[in-house]
What does this fold into?
Amino acid sequence: MWFDNYFFSRPAIALTVVTCLTACAGSGIEKASPAGLSPRPLPMLGAVILKAPVLSFNDTGLSVSDGVTRNGLWAVDSPGMDWEFSLDQGATWTRGIGSSFEVTGDGAKMIWVRARDDAGNRSEIVRVNCVLDTTAPAALGVADQTEGVTLSLKLSGIEPGARWEYSLDEQHSWAVGQCTALGILGNSLSRIWLRQVDLAGNASGAQAFDLQNPSLMAHEASGNPLQPSILTPGLQTYLIHGEVVRGDADYVRWDIPRGQKVLSIKLVQYESQEAMASYALQRNTVFDAGEDVSRMWVYGHMGARQLGRNVLANIPKSQLGEGAMTLRVQQTGPLPTQYAIEVVLAPAD
It folds into this structure.
């Protein structure tokens, strides 16, 4: 859940320290001094300034430096000294126990902590701010729409600052989506799970979307390199999925519009008794490179060991922009291979 009115003066555990001297009246009694020596007053009760404690906490969520967290536990490092904390700007103080304390109740928090001793001495007050959010966001709204040969899942109800994620392995792992829609082209995936994660790191309930529903179009990618299947433009996250075997390659094309770039291309699912299949990309509206690798933009093997690897990681940014791109996926072995490849576009730098 997002809170509109909060503040955090410095990132995460970089704490704002303000000197606050504790003024306490002394009550010592002067004693007669030996002959020839000037009188020395006793130290005033509470006149010693102790070393301030150090605070730290686990800033959960999408940023580890914004102070928005779902974890209200604060660690206190105050070696050899007692300490106390206040949640009402010093109106009341609670004596600390051990090396931590926990704040509760969602909302903005202003936390004061200082060292203390039984003689009335205090340290400077350490002041920190955070926003505690332990409430999970609502589930995403999902509406499907067929555009050309692409199934588009339009997502709604995303909280400000939150992100949406998808899972292809029954929620064992999650991938982050871009924009507010997911474009899907292929015929091998059976189900996809969707959820959102808010700024503090709370995840909504996950929803399953049935990709094998008879009412939806499952498009098998083209086997013709000169007539590839074309992804619908206007989205930023795409999933291309299918099944290939020797002699039956898949060809899919997408167009990167002006002002955009292709951010990453990753294999996100691979199921086969064959150890590897292969991929190749050509910066063209068709795939007419054949087996001439000098005409391919990038190419290589793909298998379980390549899951999650961005095949464009070493491509200069200047080459990732506007233009057509055609992908070929093929298996030279006799056993079928099911795959899913994620393509993510983003605004150009």
